[in-house]
Amino acid sequence: DFWREKAKSDPRIDEMINKKGELVPDTEVIASTGQYLKEKSPSLNNLLLDGYPRSLKQYQLLVDWLKEEGKKIDLAILLKISDQEAVRRLSARVVCEKCGTVYNLITNPPPGEKCQCGGNLIQRPDDRPEAIEKRLQTYHSTKKMEFWSRWTESARSKQSLTIC
């Protein structure tokens, strides 16, 4: 959600992630992450980072930054699903233009044709199958996340997980 918020005020980021389905370059991710984490959780305890880091460079810089802050990674959880399932789930997301509520047509459908606030539901460009497939190609072409093996608990997910 951090990058979606940033895209609202930065047309270049908006073009990159919402229109082209590209990932934000490591240099920008790294520059923004530490500041964001300290704002959201000054103690840096019990953080859940969803979808970050995405590359070995991001990982190495995160570890270095955490070390400077007197912290470390205790555990990483890697959820594995097929590309086909990822596209199916992600492309089912819709968002209310008015209030920003996110629905999933499969797991959390809206109450009707419109959002409960009366706003129109749209699919963001980065949730379209072609954008998701492009991100998956990038993911598969980068160095795999072997570096996580030290901390990773792995789960294959054919079912939906409830996040509380």
From TrEMBL:
Catalytic activity: AMP + ATP = 2 ADP
Xref: Gene3D superfamilies: P-loop containing nucleotide triphosphate hydrolases (3.40.50.300)
InterPro entries per record: Adenylat/UMP-CMP_kin, Adenylat_kinase_CS, Adenylate_kinase_lid-dom, ADK_active_lid_dom_sf, P-loop_NTPase
Keywords: ATP-binding, Kinase, Nucleotide biosynthesis, Nucleotide-binding, Transferase
Top-rank taxon: Bacteria
GO MF term set: AMP kinase activity; ATP binding
Subcellular location: Cytoplasm
Domain Adenylate kinase active site lid: 93-126
Complex and partners: Monomer.
Name of the protein described by the UniProt record: Adenylate kinase
